Amino acid sequence: MQPLDRRRFLVSSAALAALQALPGCAAPGAGAGGPDADAERALAGIAEALLAEYPENATSLGLDKDARAPLKSRLTDRSLEGRARHAAAAASRLARLAAIDRRRLDPASLIDLEVVETAHRLAAEGLRFPYGDVVTLSQNWSYRNAPYVVAQNTGAFVEIPDFLDSSHTVATPADADSYLARVEAHAGQLDGETERLRHDSDQGVLAPDFLLDKTLRQIKSARAEPVESWTLVGSLARRAAALGGGYGERARRLVEQKVAPAMDRQIAELTRQRARADDRAGAWKLPDGEHYYAWALRAATTSARTPEEVHRMGQEQLAELQSRMDPILRAQGLTQGTVGERMTALGKDPKYLFPNDEAGRRQILDFLNGRVADIRARLPRAFATLVRGNLVIKRVPPEIEAGAPGGYAAAGTIDGSVPGNYYINLRDTSIWPRHALPTLTYHEGIPGHVWQGEYTYKLPLVRSLLAFNAYSEGWALYAEQLADELGVYEGDPLGRLGYMQSIAFRCCRLVVDTGLHAKRWTRAQAIDWFVRTNGSSREEVQSEVDRYVAWPGQACGYKVGHSEINRLRAKAQAALGKRFDLRTFDDALVLGGSVPLTLLERVIDRYVAKGGQ
Hints:
Elements: H1 13-17, H2 34-53, H3 56-60, H4 80-98, H5 107-127, H6 156-167, H7 173-202, H8 209-224, H9 231-239, H10 247-274, H11 289-301, H12 307-331, H13 339-348, H14 358-378, E1 391-395, E2 407-410, E3 420-424, H15 437-444, H16 449-456, H17 461-464, H18 469-485, H19 493-517, H20 523-534, H21 538-550, H22 557-576, H23 582-591, H24 597-609
Parallel strand pairs: 1-3
Antiparallel strand pairs: 2-3
Helix pairs in contact: 2-5, 4-5, 5-11, 6-7, 6-9, 7-10, 8-10, 9-10, 12-19, 13-20, 14-15, 15-18, 15-19, 18-22, 19-20, 20-21, 22-24
């Protein structure tokens, strides 16, 4: 295992001071050391400003201690006023970044600067739309932007209880006090979102009725539980039991007196909006909806591809993939119907399903952990530089699983004290035939999101705070490909079919997302096309389509990013010939960190120019 030594974290005393001074960007030329040092100071200041605006990220990365300890008691301001402050801060930092003289910067510093500048530019553009939730600058939730402040997969009621349970450590009374402060802040977040819901609805921005129905079912179900059984209460009561101080009871009172009434107010507003909503699914219906979707697609793919280009790309790549799946299916005796219909039949075959009970859920978790153990042993053939791969596999919390994706990952802390989490949605085990599970595990865990994320921890801090959907999801899809190339499906044709169906699934996303938001497809049309074309279960596809409605553009990042990585790999192979080494190429991809696709080619060109080293 080689050490990661590109650069140390850049957290100077000036950067720490910036915690109290937004926008936290040092003026160019403010210190000694030349232009690279000036840029590093500026970026370190921006990192502190981002942590102050989005303090959940300090906790997720294990940075809420020492000078940053006050962040452990805070949550992001989700109010209308908070959104305006975030917009002003992003615009101010963008102007300061533009003023930095980059003519004499070294290539690494220049990439760092342009990564941060791109993230701020996308955020500033999105925040000009006077509605919705723009989270491009928040590492925890930067994968999605949403026109609706609250939906089945968006909003404080979905995100914060699990965040506090999984990421907020409770080892001391001070930690527990900070937890209580965040419980109270959570009530303020809910009210802030309710204020924005009203504001946005006055502009004609209403989630479609089917999303509001799902959202209301979730939030009402959570609200109906006895307060003492809420995650917000039970998590602190369990973890602070040995500390004394009655923390569980104090959390219960806060939830009862502040959080629950705020939830009631949000339920009332969502109910009011449901009475006015219709079933139009696409972003085209929004004020300036065509431009909103163009921005959302650009933010999600960090490319200039138009909706029409993305739609056509999905159709063409899907046809090519299914032409390769057909002979494998035929070899299994599945000869009748389309590829999608045959995959549907395969996915329903009881011999490939786990029991739909708690025993079956435990079997799935055991199976996934076995796949992780297997792939770990293969990774030295794909990487010259290895990281720990600090990973725990968990079930999606039952209280949010109805609206949650099938699987997703959450970063661990930089110091390794809290592992990365790979969550799998086990609300219904029938959506997970055995052949579909390995590739999901490589995507979310190792060598996918959790693995790639650990490489960013040795870059300047600001680079760990910013992620780009197309790179992150493109990498995770490429990780699925690497697993296949490392031989995990040798002797397992059904597993290979599961992998190919996963890639085809992402091709379908290109078609469906653009179909909904640019071509005015209905929800029913999108679901029917997806089920018929890819052979995915209707239950899985309904949840997927609803996700695309709530997060326009996000689902397109996967295949756009994956295709670009493969294009650059082919380019590097052609340029380097016999000198090409998969391990050093993959190192170049991950050691360069999460970047916009517009900058990824420069990273690979630099790798080629250095002779593949």
